[in-house]
Design brief:
Radius of gyration: 25 Å
Distance between the termini: 31 Å
Structural class: alpha+beta
Number of strands: 16
Number of helices: 10
Largest sheet: 5 strands, mixed
Strand content: 15-25%
Strand order of the largest sheet: 7-6-5-8-9
Length: about 350
């Protein structure tokens, strides 16, 4: 099975010689849902493709494409733990990508395979962490568009675990303050650990006094999207959603700020690459966790080096054997295949980073 689209193949796909061609993008989580359900969805997609091809084409290549598509579907890997699948079939080319991003169903007949189509089909999930604090306990939830799931940090979630730390204080009030700070510091350490697993914006909820103490000591300030004052220790999920609604209604701003903060954190850790040349190099070495690219940024380039992990912008006529029509699309594909994710931002947002940045795995 081919896994890389060369530049000449990409250009050839747009010619009549390579048509009909088919792109199918579908949710694909065999470990979560049954194989029968997924096969039914694939059969529906196949039926749709067959109808559209027969309405437009009537040649031997149509039969070739449909047979290749049936073979690919029959040989799909149902042992994968991925979330989605992208299939591309033309008379002379076939490709399957197993991806870690959630997508909506998207079927294109007679269109060239553009990796950006995957991103346009990506489901926009509002994923975030909620840290609920009180003077005695803490809870962390993983929130999304529809639900909250409690997650466990690797630190105690109740202040009682630190009660012996204040035994040397005679003043009960001083002891109480020391214990609270100790507890919140450990809670913050636990949040840092969770952010490695769930690198999402964080909303911190609690009384004004506790939030004030926490703000002064947190080391995760670049991940915190907002503070919500109130008493939420025993609040139902629907009321948590209500309290977060002002932030979630302006998700584009939350997401933009979070991406900026993630880039700052990565830069501080020496894990941020900018510019297509450096991004290409790191992605080729399978280090890409999150690619951030401006909406309309495209870049032609040529490969050099025996391993093809270095590219440059040619000043004169290009070499057809090393030419890349759009290095950005190729990088997107590399990052997705390695289990990373991709986010598009408005043009000009990454002007200081040459229009494209890559956050590497820590």
């Amino acid at each position: 099975m081919n896994t890389v689209l060369s530049s000449d193949i990409r250009e050839g796909m747009n010619t009549a010689h390579y048509k009909p061609s088919v792109s199918i993008i579908l949710p694909f989580e065999p470990k979560m849902g049954g194989k029968a359900e997924i096969m039914h969805q694939l059969k529906c997609a196949l039926d749709k493709v067959e109808r559209e091809i027969k309405q437009t084409y009537n040649n031997d290549l149509s039969a070739v494409v449909l047979q290749k598509l049936r073979t690919v579907i029959r040989n799909l890997n149902f042992s994968t733990y991925k979330k989605s699948i992208a299939i591309y079939i033309s008379p002379f080319f076939e490709k399957v990508l197993y991806l870690d991003i959630p997508v909506k169903e998207h079927i294109i007949v007679n269109g060239s395979f553009e990796i950006r189509d995957l991103l346009f089909s990506k489901k926009e999930l509002h994923q975030y962490l909620v840290l609920i604090l009180s003077a005695k306990s803490s809870k962390v939830y993983l929130g999304n568009t529809t639900s909250f799931t409690k997650v466990k940090a690797n630190v105690p979630d109740h202040i009682a675990a630190f009660r012996h730390d204040g035994n040397h204080f005679g003043d009960p009030l001083a002891k109480k303050e020391v214990l609270l700070k100790k507890f919140l510091q450990h809670t913050d350490d636990g949040l840092k650990f969770l952010l490695h697993v769930y690198p999402f914006p964080v909303f911190v909820m609690g009384s004004k006094k506790v939030l004030g103490v926490y703000k002064a000591l947190t080391k995760n300030e670049k991940s915190i999207a907002g503070y919500v004052p109130g008493h939420f220790e025993k609040v139902a999920d629907n009321l948590l959603s209500d309290a977060l609604k002002p932030f979630l209604d302006n998700w584009a701003k939350v997401k933009s700020e979070d991406l900026r903060h993630q880039m700052e954190k990565a830069a501080d850790a020496g894990k941020l690459s900018s510019g297509i040349g450096e991004v290409w190099k790191q992605a080729s070495q399978h280090r890409g966790r999150l690619l951030i690219v401006e909406n309309n940024f495209i870049c032609s380039a040529e490969k050099k080096g025996t391993e093809g992990n270095i590219i440059y912008m040619p000043a004169g006529p290009y070499n057809k054997f090393s030419y890349i029509k759009d290095a950005v699309d190729d990088v997107i594909e590399k990052v997705l295949e390695d289990g990373g994710d991709v986010e598009f931002v408005e043009d000009g947002t990454l002007a200081d980073h040459q229009h494209i940045s890559l956050i590497q795995y820590y």
